[in-house]
Amino acid sequence: MRYAVDSILYQNDKIVLIKRAGRTFHDYWALPGGSLDEGETVEKALKREMLEELNVNVQPLEILGVYSEPDRDPRGHVISVVFICSYDGNPEAGDDAAEYSEFSLTEALELELAFDHKKILQDFKKWLKKKETFWSNKK
């Protein structure tokens, strides 16, 4: 089992997505994120991953939820904490990101997204109205 963080970088009604460069879901749009290193907190992993993938400094604002469905990642069971963040800087694609782009939430939900990121963005849409937290099987 592995642990990960994902980030919803949301500013000016736009969400930053990356196009994956890795083998898994290659060329799919996804939320930026990655795996925790041994001994690392989720907050430190979040900040490190956003610097590595997009060269931005993030400030976590809220936790959207925890996603733990065993089949959410074809590489194995990965539990992810998803943060809603503000960020400083101009994003630049790096590390596992072939490119990045900003989308409205409506545009992002129309894309074919990696992993369970469409469900996460659907939950984020609900969060914008109710400010509630989510987990894998919450409807």
Record the SSE blueprint.
Blueprint (H helix, E strand, L loop, with lengths): L1 E10 L2 E7 L8 E2 L2 E3 L6 H13 L2 E11 L10 E11 L8 E7 L1 H6 L6 H14 L3 E2 L4
Parallel strand pairs: 1-6, 5-8
Antiparallel strand pairs: 1-2, 1-4, 2-3, 2-7, 5-6
Give a written overview of the molecule:
With 139 residues, this protein is α+β, with helices and mostly antiparallel strands. It has one domain: Nucleoside Triphosphate Pyrophosphohydrolase. The protein has 3 helices and 8 strands; from the N terminus they run E-E-E-E-H-E-E-E-H-H-E. The radius of gyration is 14 Å and the shape is globular. The two termini are 24 Å apart.
CATH-level-4 superfamily name: Nucleoside Triphosphate Pyrophosphohydrolase
Mean pLDDT: 94
Number of domains: 1
Range of strand content: 35-45%
- Quick one: biggest sheet? 8 strands, mixed
User: How much helix, percentage-wise, in residues?
Assistant: 10-25%
Output the radius of gyration: 14 Å
The N- and C-terminal alpha carbons lie at a distance of 24 Å
The coarse overall form would be: globular
Name the structural class: alpha+beta
Number of helices: 3
List SSEs in N-to-C order: EEEEHEEEHHE
